[in-house]
Design a protein that fits this description.
The structure holds 2 protein chains of 2 kinds. By secondary structure, chain A is mainly alpha-helical. Chain A has 25 helices and 12 strands. Chain B has one domain: MetI-like (MetI-like fold, Orthogonal Bundle). The chains are: A mainly alpha, B mainly alpha. At the A-B interface, helix 3, helix 13 and helix 22 of A face helix 13 of B.
Chain lengths: ~500, ~325
């Protein structure tokens, strides 16, 4: 009898412990963050575990292939499943996500947060504009910028033989191209056949003047749009009508198809960014414009693969290329919005972002992008920061942004561009015909003229690009990280 | 020993016992059959027919998931009207047919040839069969990414081979007129083994007697092939043809990994177009209408071919009985 009584007590105790454990497990909040598979996943895991240790809030990272990110998130958001607490979006989709109510407005959360933890003003203003803001409200925080710039083989550009030959042929010095006509000149100049010389060396294989991404991937529109924006042409006018059939836009597309593509490797028509990196590393190309600066760590490997090669960076010709970032926002159907925001603030905050930058990520925070000591310690992964800061500062000062970023259907229009721009690049349709189809697609997606919600840019919004001071940029040595570091240490 | 050949002793023993009434079976044969197929039917109903009914419903409505209206009112035949006059849809259908016909014909011819070859070889048959199955075991998307590099004009192995053969290097995936043949070549590489294995199984199951008789009669090899082998193999060939055709018109993974539908729209097949319309632009209404039109065409084709196959099977069963 006594024995059985003890047994009952032990069982009851076990039951109590079990129940309390279950209650505790129920109390532990779990945040589901859907993010891009393979994009600094190790860093994300590390940040998540640090956050878990400090707060007791679990973070479940759901990796999704970048190609399926959009539809995965939209389907869950439309169905209000609450599957994800944090959504990840490309700047081009911000307007749609915010306008459709998939994202929670964060202004109140930011106001209530510790200013040192969130340090909202430290985020580069241009990236805040394109990745966070919608109709004057904040809908997410950017954590990774893929802003575009210009990569070139500065060893070739500084070669005396090449410099004199270029000047003799084109009547101006060889250097960082300030506009796309100059870029086309440089592309044509460096196109060499086997047997010709390059920087004094006889070539065994073809050498190409430029690497371009004309395959049917997102990058073809980034390249053509960059040419268009630099000349003031627009995908969508301020009144919401398509601008892709305007003479200026057609001229931009023609320059790409008729002058850049013929001087690019034949693989250009099936290339995306990874092939451009490979072409540079193989020593096949002299330059690439409107290319992701965050690829610097991969591009700079060319210096070890090709003896004597040096990689430098600059703003893309005309500077107004694609300025963008991946943003993260709190899902409006999140069951734990405060906890989700707390993690977002932590992940996009100064401490985690510093780790991100050291690990090779390209952060959106100015305090890190301008940290000279940190850059000097990590030139192989942060060598593009000075150029990036110059682009971001200029964009913010110009207050010039592409209109389709302020159209709720911008993401879908971006998707349409892939088809029609690549159709023109491949010669399947003439530039005029392809852009005509693009214009029809814009009207179809918007149901007529698009609504351009750029009022929040304020009275100083510039509908045209602002000239960039390339001379000052070169004088700052921001294009050449070795010289930049040396100038600061002397 | 089956019930039809009861031995004499047994029969006598049974005759000596009082005859008991036959046991009443709990279920009739037809009820038992229905019971057996019920779980499968429930699964088909849930995973095939319910979505199909939903797609039919959506195809008669306005349904743009990203618009504030979402899935809204009935619009009659408007989506079908849109589908019928959408030139891009019909262009993608044309490309799909071009792909399916070319790929399936090549796969059938090569697959049958490989099956005959494997049927004849005496040694290493097992190893050959294991090797040939490898492309089937790989994920089309993953292998597609590898093939993308193999096709690459600067770094790819195909251009290395053609240059060693003294032929001009090609822009396999970047040239609008070469991109579709390149996708077809990939599909042929991946799916010819499937045809070969099924046909090989069919060849090994053929009855020996007619072939021995033909040999005694001194029939030529060609005559044996024409009048015996292919007619006896035809149900298997029909089945493989139908399976491959259905799979070929659903082509998606290879296009995504190799070309992304490009260059331009040169490899944008119907599934890829419908994916963009339905899951990138979220026009589920138009995508559903187009899918149903395409499904209808596929069902009609399959029905016509399978009718012949079923008739052959029925005739063969009758002949055996």
């Amino acid at each position: 009898m006594k024995k059985s009584r003890y047994l009952v007590i032990v069982l009851l105790l076990a039951l109590v412990l079990l129940i309390s454990g279950a209650v505790q497990a129920q109390d532990a909040v779990t945040i589901n963050w859907v993010t891009i598979s393979g994009f600094y996943t190790d860093w994300a895991e590390q940040v998540a575990s640090q956050f878990e240790e400090e707060t007791g809030i679990n973070v479940n990272i759901i990796d999704v292939d970048i190609g399926q990110m959009y539809e995965t998130q939209v389907l869950e958001s439309v169905a209000d499943t609450g599957a994800y607490d944090l959504l990840t979006y490309d700047a081009g989709y911000k307007a749609e996500f915010a306008e459709s109510g998939y994202l929670l407005q964060l202004d109140d959360y930011i106001a209530a947060a510790d200013p040192e933890v969130i340090a909202f003003d430290d985020i580069a203003p241009a990236l805040r504009e394109v990745s966070s803001m919608w109709r004057g409200g904040v809908y997410g925080l950017p954590y990774y910028t893929f802003t575009m710039g210009y990569f070139y083989r500065c060893d070739l550009f500084e070669n005396p033989d090449e410099m004199s030959a270029f000047e003799a042929e084109y009547g101006y010095p060889l250097g960082i191209p300030e506009n796309y006509d100059q870029l086309a000149d440089v592309a044509a100049f460096f196109r060499r056949a086997p047997g010709e010389t390059l920087a004094g060396q006889t070539l065994d294989e073809d050498f190409y003047g430029i690497g371009v991404m004309a395959g049917r991937f997102d990058q073809v529109q980034d390249e053509i749009n960059s040419i268009a924006w630099s000349t003031g042409a627009k995908v969508i006018h301020d009144d919401g009508t398509p601008g892709v059939t305007d003479p200026e836009f057609l001229a931009a597309a023609h320059l790409y198809v008729d002058e850049l593509l013929p001087n690019a490797p034949p693989g250009a028509l099936s290339s995306s960014f990874d092939q451009i990196v490979a072409q540079m590393q193989e020593g096949l190309i002299a330059q690439t414009a409107a290319f992701f600066l965050d690829q610097y760590a991969n591009m700079v490997k060319t210096e070890t693969l090709i003896p004597g090669a040096r990689i430098c960076t600059a703003p893309a010709p005309g500077v107004h290329s694609w300025v963008g970032a991946f943003g993260v926002g709190v899902s409006s159907d999140s069951k734990h919005p405060q906890e989700a925001f707390d993690f977002l603030a932590w992940m996009a905050g100064p401490i985690a972002q510093r780790q991100f930058a050291i690990g090779g990520g390209t952060t959106c925070r100015l305090s890190i992008l301008t940290d000279e000591a940190l850059i000097a310690e990590n030139p192989q992964t942060m060598g593009h920061y000075p150029t990036l800061v110059a682009i971001l500062d200029h964009t913010a000062a110009a207050n010039f942004y592409p209109n389709y970023l302020f159209v709720p259907q911008g993401g879908k229009i971006y998707d349409e561009m892939t088809t029609w721009y690549s159709t023109a690049a491949a010669g399947e349709q003439s530039v005029e015909e392809a852009m005509g189809n693009m214009a029809t697609a814009i009207e179809r997606q918007c149901g007529g003229a698009c609504e351009v919600a750029n009022d929040a840019l304020g009275a100083d919004y510039s509908p045209v690009p602002m000239p960039f001071d390339y001379a000052a940029f070169i004088a700052s040595k921001a294009n050449d990280i070795e010289a930049w570091v040396a100038a600061r240490s002397s | 020993m089956n019930s039809g050949s009861v031995s004499v002793d047994n029969a006598q023993v049974q005759a000596g016992r009082p005859r008991s009434a036959p046991k009443r079976r709990l279920l009739s044969d037809s009820a038992y059959s229905v019971l057996l197929i019920t779980p499968a039917m429930i699964l088909i109903l849930i995973f095939a027919l319910v979505p199909l009914a939903y797609a039919i419903n959506v195809s008669f409505r306005f349904a743009d998931l990203t618009s504030p209206r979402g899935i809204a009112d009935f619009v009659g035949l408007e989506n079908y009207h849109f589908a019928l006059k959408d030139n891009f849809f019909w262009a993608s259908v044309q490309r799909t047919l071009q792909f399916a016909i070319s790929a399936v014909v090549l796969e059938m011819v090569l697959g049958i040839a490989i099956a005959f070859l494997l049927n004849e070889i005496k040694w290493l048959k097992g190893i050959a069969r294991s090797l040939i199955i490898l492309p089937l075991a790989a994920s089309p998307f993953a292998v597609g990414l590898i093939w993308r590099y193999m096709y690459h004009p600067e770094f790819g192995v195909f251009n290395y081979i053609v240059s060693r053969l003294g032929m001009p290097e090609q822009n396999w995936l970047g040239n609008a007129s070469l991109a579709m043949p390149s996708v077809i070549a990939f599909d042929v590489w991946q799916w010819t083994p499937f045809v070969a294995l099924i046909v090989l199984a069919g060849l090994q199951a053929l009855p020996k007697e007619p072939f021995e008789a033909a040999e005694l009669d001194g029939a030529s090899r060609w005559r044996v092939l024409r009048t015996l082998t292919f007619p006896l193999l035809s149900p298997v060939l029909t089945l493989v043809l139908v399976l491959r055709t259905i799979d070929a018109v659903r082509l998606y993974d290879a296009v995504v990994s190799l070309t992304g539908g490009g260059p331009g729209t040169s490899t944008e097949v119907v599934t890829f177009y419908l994916y963009r319309l339905g899951l990138r632009f979220f026009r589920l209404d138009q995508a559903s209408a187009m899918s149903l039109l395409f499904l209808y065409a596929t069902v009609v084709f399959t029905g016509l071919v399978m009718r012949r196959f079923m008739r052959q099977m029925a005739e063969r069963t009758r002949a055996k009985n």
